Amino acid sequence: MSTEISMTTQVETMEERIRRAEVLVEALPYIRRFSGHTLVIKLGGAAIGEDVDAFLQDVVLLRFVGMRPVLVHGGGPEISSWQKRLGIEPRFVNGLRVTDGATMEVVKMVLTGKIGPELVSRIHRLGGQAVGMSGEDGPTLLVRPRGPENGQDLGFVGEVDQVNAEPIVSVLDQGRIPVIASIGLGVDGDAYNVNADTVAAELAIALKATKLVLLTDVEGVRDADGELISALDAAAADRLIESGAIHGGMIPKVRAALRALDTVTASHIIDGRVSHSLLLELLTEKGVGTMVTR
């Protein structure tokens, strides 16, 4: 009996090994295609959870196989949590956070004082090398105050006016992974909160990236019937926004995905809660989530 169990275990183990080898072979054409290319990846605050190490393993692996990942992070849920602790009620207009002076201080504290350093530390523990930055450093992101949204003043919310890619390229050329908080520097010298999806899109354009990947806490873009859309072109995306099928926080994501199409071959909106969703999207035939194309 023990011999039969042992043989079965050996067969299963060999099958598992063969399957792992097949996965590597499937990924090879994509690794060859994207080697040396820049990929801008945005990690949403809602997608930063217990499985963040699986995502960061994907990022480190992409770097080791010759790709140049740039990680942009938000921190929406944690910012809102800290606002509430400090007696500030979070307010949003079309998915954009209304940011007064006190809220801006919370944004800087959470993004550059907590989330950014934690991501850098985790990447180092996983064997990669990373450098934490914000748009103020360099400065990398020069922004202007965003106008009112639906007639409401958003406060210290910025819109990207200019990207200085040199500091990011320097980090990439050193073999390191830039980890960038979505804060910009205004011409008035003040810090501004910038939507992280928008930052990722503008960086993708400035860096002439091949791909923009936006991780979130949903499976992807859904149509009016709630069905997941695996491939979405620009015209269809505009119609879904106008009809209200795409709404709330998904609007800036889709707009960012469309904006990046000026240079990237495709934008991807995927579920960061799925283990290794980044590798599944970039290095397999079927992928996951929604791919946005021209």
Q: Say how many strands there are.
A: 14
Gyration radius over CA: 20 Å
- What CATH calls the topology is Carbamate kinase
Strand order of the largest sheet: 5-8-2-1-11-13-14-12
Which band does the percent of strand residues land in? Answer: 15-25%
For the largest beta-sheet, the strand count, sense and barrel status come to: 8 strands, mixed
The CATH first-level class comes to: Alpha Beta
Q: What would you call the structural class?
A: alpha/beta
Number of domains: 1
Which spans have pLDDT < 50 for at least 5 consecutive residues? 1-9
N to C succession of SSEs = HEHEHEEHEEEHEEEHEEHHEHE
- What's the architecture in CATH terms? 3-Layer(aba) Sandwich
Q: Calculate the terminal CA-CA distance, rounded to whole Å.
A: 61 Å
Q: How would you sum up the global shape? A: globular
Number of helices: 9
Helix content: 40-55%
